[in-house]
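subagent[fold] <- orchestrator: predict structure for attached chain, return tokens only, no commentary.
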Amino acid sequence: MAKELKELTTRKENYSQWYQDLVIKADLAENSAVRGCMVIKPYGYAIWENMQRALDDMFKETGHSNAYFPLLIPKSFMSREADHVEGFAKECAVVTHYRLKNAPDGSGVVVDPAAKLEEELIIRPTSETIIWHTYRNWIQSYRDLPILINQWANVMRWEMRTRLFLRTAEFLWQEGHTAHATQAEAEEETLRMLGVYARFAQDFMAMPVIRGAKTASERFAGALETYCIEAMMQDGKALQAGTSHFLGQNFGRAFDVTFIDREGKTDYAWATSWGVSTRLVGALIMAHSDDNGLVLPPRLAPIQVVIIPIYKSEEQLGQISERANAIAARLRQMGISVKYDDSDNRKPGWKFAEYELKGVPVRLAIGGRDMENGTVEVMRRDMLSKETVPQDGIELRVQKLLSDIQNNIYCKAFDFRAKRIVNVNSYDEFKAKIEEGFFVMAHWDGSAATEEQIKNDTKATIRCIPFEGDMTPGQCVLTGQPSERRVLFARSY
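subagent[fold] -> orchestrator:
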């Protein structure tokens, strides 16, 4: 059974299949009876809960409060902001009726044609419209601003080609929606929240990211500016891990959200929105995991330490359990999540393989000889290395080890990315490096036509215009026209 647990397609053999195998075998999620929608299983949801807790704390530290808005949005609301509706029109699921009835022939239930809605309702693809309709009632004066709201919710976008966590028709996310009295405040908020996402990715996910602005063709529908964090996966593709949008006064105008400013003049409120989703679970898997299973950073692992007894008799198990439970209790007092697995339906070898597959950062094994010698075997998942250490002081050793693992996972991902980012100056080299799975920094002439041609030629897109990097002017890698600076190209998910 231990062998079966670890029979994953290798990353080299088929990276896409490796990812799919790992999501299923590690018990994170599975496809549901609804096409394009997934069931997030308890272990996968526990990872998402840890992400939620960390992000929610960070949002509240920056002054935001949680609220909840309706799942269903009147169709007329989607027509208020032209760019917004155009961006989402092809992905919307529409509710047209409100009642079922038994079929006359007894074959089941059918939609009751008499129960047609006067106005169709859209299952939210995002909530700007319903929220800004609500804000109109909340805002009269500059004293009512800013409004700093976050919502934890699900959304529906009718994706036809789906992949667990990375792209599903329904997914979980958070969406921040804020209203401000000035353009400067809104722009500051947009960048502040991008910084929150970058810190979360690096400090909790152990995933280095590149911060930057999207090009006009890649902006969120209805935004004046979209900023993003981009991460490199182990196959060299980019994954957009979070976005923050400066919406200007577009939604204020669309929903007539006005206020009296400090000078007594009437103005429209300035808006931002920002969000991350359960695609971060997919990013976590693809950024760090290996051919043996998940590799989870300790700060997000549902189980940080597992203790496994190795015994020959019930009497010996009792002695080991007493010691193991004492160690577990002290670790929990230190805020470390621990599982003591003394189940008798699986052998130790099976358990070793199972927790390795699930990416538990630290495994402690205690056997009869360890009881005699006062030792414990410690295995760290990130390096698959083992050592035997004294039981005395094991709690402090484990605490430091978890910190070391978190740091090591980040450094490994950072070094991997550093080796796969390259500056190029010719289109032939550009195409070759994109094909090899590199992040390519190249000059672009700023035109949408050039951007589209490069995408058609290579399947690479401009992931962002980085905030940092080579700002030296040059010539566009495709057209030879003047370019202000290099931008980041990559293939993506």
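orchestrator: received. Logging for downstream: The radius of gyration is 26 Å. The domain at 15-92+127-288 is CATH 3.30.930.10 (BirA Bifunctional Protein; domain 2).
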